[in-house]
Amino acid sequence: MAISTDLIQAKTLLESGKLVAIPTETVYGLAGNALDPIAVASIFETKNRPSFDPLIIHVSSIEAAKNYCREFPLPLQKLAETFWPGPLTLLLPKVVEIPDLVTSGLDRVAIRVPQHPMTLALLKTLDFPLAAPSANPFGYISPTSPAHVEAQLGKVVPLILDGGPCPVGLESTIVGMEGAELVVYRLGGLEIDAIEALVGPVKIQDHSSSNPQAPGLLESHYAPTKPFVLGDLAKLIPYYSQLGKTVGVLSFQNFSALQPIEKQRILSKTGDLREAAANLFAAMRELDGLEVDLILAELVPNFGLGKAINDRLQRASA
Ligand code: TXA
Ligand code: MG
What we know:
The protein has 318 residues and is an alpha/beta fold. The protein has two domains: 2-204, DHBP synthase (Alpha-Beta Complex), CATH 3.90.870; 228-316, Threonylcarbamoyl-AMP synthase, C-terminal domain (Rossmann fold), CATH 3.40.50.11030. It has helices spanning 7-15, 37-47, 62-66, 74-83, 100-103, 117-125, 146-153, 192-199, 233-242, 273-289, 305-317, and strands at residues 2-4, 20-22, 29-33, 56-58, 88-93, 108-112, 130-131, 159-161, 173-178, 181-186, 203-204, 228-230, 247-251, 264-266, 294-297. The strands form two sheets. The chain has an eleven-stranded mixed β-sheet, sandwiched between helices. The longest helix is centred in the last third of the chain and has 17 residues, at 273-289. The protein is globular, with a radius of gyration of 19 Å. Residues 208-212 have low confidence and may be disordered. Magnesium ion binds next to loops.
């Protein structure tokens, strides 16, 4: 396994059906040729991901995206023109060239143009899109640095492209249409307010394991291996301490006086939700790696990116 910035090696591996971990602005992806069913199958196998959970394909431009969908409804085109490259994934009716394994047999394919110079440069040299889920074992926290990928998939992925830490730190927002209505299937790195300012009100689809439109959006996800408890830290810390438990603490802005500082992480000293999003997954991983019995966390203010952060915190605790 190598960690490098070698785009030629990445291209060679991908063209021969191998997988490469790629940086994006949201999280690192585990990428393979989306048009090659064997490469796609090895993504599922490497992640230990159930085949009913479809993959996002990554392309370098709107024009490239148009090669892989039968139609591109106007409101979604407007979103693409404004927010691509960026943390937005669109669900579009797929062309037959996209293998059914990519979409888990669904008629729509998830497409996005990621905003990362290294990955955009790579995509431009390839004549196929890259299918890429987050580069973590299924159900675990998404990776936001090359070291995160290496820790879990280092033995099985031949190359990790080093694009530094991910500036957004939350997975993309997923949007599609049902009839004339715009539906958000996953809260993510692009705020709902920005979407609504452009195309009007959207429906936020409540995620559940029985949601046939987005089978992968299971309630328990993005989860550390340690039990993860969400609530009022001023009550939770004394409660678990009195039970004799050692705890790690994840707070939004301030350290708690009730715990040693080494067992705590804060998301943003200044209360900046963007900074909090960028730090979230690394902080969860660090706490998961400490010698603690469980992790205690609090919700962040529920607006803007805070909604997506709270969604991830709730799934981690499910
Ligand atoms: O930011 C991101 O979106 C990252 C980077 C690598 O691009 N990717 C990512 O992929 O988060 P993944 O596989 O961890 O999550 C993709 C989610 C799946 O859980 C799935 O439910 C949904 O996207 N999805 C993909 N294709 C779909 C489809 N055809 N219909 C409905 N949902 C779909
Ligand atoms: Mg994922």
